[in-house]
Amino acid sequence: GSAFDGASGQYTCPVTGIYLFSITVGLSAGDRLRLQLKSSVNSVVPELTRGSTAHDALDTISRPILLPCEAGEKIGLKLLNGKITGDSTDMLSSFAGF
């Protein structure tokens, strides 16, 4: 659908309900990463913190998150610490909501 805005990286919830957000992020071997699911309405949102378990290559971390949302609420990701690895060629990172 049209709920995801690629320019802003935000998902706009079309109706009030419980949404499933899927996050996959690439990181380099030995790196640590801290992400927060960011909401335009709620101040309490989940965080994802993890270090890479790879010793000499790229790694990914994935997490599904259930979140109650209001109609029109915008959800996005905020990088708090670390560095996201990947680009449009290797497709290591993704963010989806439904």
Automatic annotation (TrEMBL):
It holds the Pfam family C1q. Residues 1-98 form the C1q domain. Signal peptide: none annotated. It comes from the Eukaryota. This is C1q domain-containing protein. It comes from Capitella teleta. The lineage of its organism: Eukaryota, Metazoa, Spiralia, Lophotrochozoa, Annelida.
